[in-house]
Amino acid sequence: MRWMAVAAAFLAAAGSARAETCDRQAFEHCQACHALTKDAGQKPGPQLVAVIGRPVAGDPAFDYSPVLQEARAKGEVWTKDKLDLYLSDPQAVYAGTWMGSPPIRDAKQRADILCVLGGR
Ligand code: HEC
Fold it and tell me: Is 36 inside a domain boundary?
């Protein structure tokens, strides 16, 4: 019976480790276009350093679409909720956005991505 106690302790430890770290795999396909550091060189999309709480169209080195520039001019900011919506359907939030990535319908996948973006 001792092995069961050991297995239970192991499972408990594995479970808590999972709760604390983000599933970085969810962000993998974003990385083709986005960097999470300021010095990652030129990518097809803006860098996303500390994007949660940052003004929309907030990478000064990136030439944004008119709709995102307009949002910045209005003082809009990326909240977690707005980002969640944008990832679930970019065109529904900012019609005409140049982000050509497909909508992410899976809420768990969006939560993992938000975890990576917020995990500084
Ligand atoms: C094919 C390239 C591409 C992929 C893949 C992509 N993006 Fe983008 N993303 C862009 C472009 C281009 C923009 C700028 C859009 C505009 O100007 O309208 C953008 C804009 C954004 C913005 C707004 C940034 C700001 O400064 O306002 C966020 C947030 C974002 N993307 C997150 C993601 C996430 C998270 C993923 C992965 C699920 C992803 N993107 C996948 C190209 C991409």
Answer: yes
User: Could you tell me the pTM of the whole model?
Assistant: 0.86
Tell me what percent of the residues of the chain surpass a pLDDT of 70.
82
CATH of residue 48's domain is 1.10.760.10
Q: What is the count of structural domains for the chain?
A: 1
- The rounded Å distance from CA 16 to ligand 1 centre is 31
Domain limits for position 53: 24-118
Of 92, 34, 84, the residue nearest 58 (C-alpha): 34
Q: Is residue 18 part of a domain?
A: no
SS3 assignment, position 77: strand
pLDDT tops 80 at residue 115: yes
- Its sign, for the CA torsion 33, 88, 25, 115, is positive
Q: Which residues surround ligand 1 with Cβ inside 6 Å?
A: 29-30, 32-34, 44-46, 48, 51, 56-59, 64-65, 68, 83, 87, 97-101, 104, 113
